[in-house]
Amino acid sequence: MSKSLFFFAGFSLLFCVTSSLSWSMQCEEHDCDESRKTFVSTLPGSGKWKDDVTPKKNWTCQAIEDLESADSLCQMCEREWIRYAHTMQHADYKNLTVGCICAGHMEGDLKASKERESYFRSRSQRRTKWLDLAWKKSKKGNLYIKTRANSEDEDSHIVTIFKGKYGKYSASIDQKYLEQWFPTVREAQYAAFDYLWPSKKIFE
Ligand SMILES: [Zn+2]
After folding, report:
1. What domain range is 159 assigned to?
2. What is the percentage of the chain residues whose pLDDT exceeds 70?
3. From ligand 1's centre to the CA of 81, what distance in Å?
4. Based on the structure, what is the number of domains in the chain?
5. Is this structure's pTM higher than 0.85?
C-alpha cells in the first residue's frame, strides 16, 4: 500500500469512528435511524416512509419541544418513541411531529436537526442540575442566584424565589415576576428555569 493510500485509509477510519461517536452522543436515544435505513435499503421501511402519499422531502421545522419523557410516537416512521419532538411542516401535507433523524431526512439537513436536538439535550442536563447550583440566601431569607445568559440575550440574570402571603412560592427573574404560585420552593425554581430556557422553541 502506498503511503498516501495508507494515510487516506487511516483518515477515513478515524472519520467514521468520530462521526459515529458524535452521532451516538447527539441522537442516541430515539433516532428513528433504523426505520429510515430500512426505507433506503431493500428491506421495507416503516410508517409514512413507505407510503405513496406522504412527501419524503421539502419539509421545514416549525418547532421543537422537550416532552420530558419518550412516550410520543414519531409520526413519520411510526416506530420510534421520541422525547424531543420536531414539528415539521410541508406545503402539501399536515404537520407531523417526528424524531431527530426522521426530521433531518425530511428537511434534507441532518446537521440542522441534530443541532436543534443537541441544544435541548444540554438544556435538559442543565435543568437537572439547576437546584444543585450555588443558590444563596438574601437578608430576607429568599433563595437567589445569579445565572448565565439564556438564548435570548447575553446578560446574566438574577433569579429570586420568594414566599407569598398565602404560603405559596413564586420567582422573579431580574425585575419581572412570574405571576404564578407554586406549593414548593423547588417548583418555583424550576418555573424560573423554564422561563429563562423554555422547553419549546418555535421557528418563524
Ligand atoms: Zn421517526
Report:
1. 133-199
2. 78
3. 8
4. 2
5. no
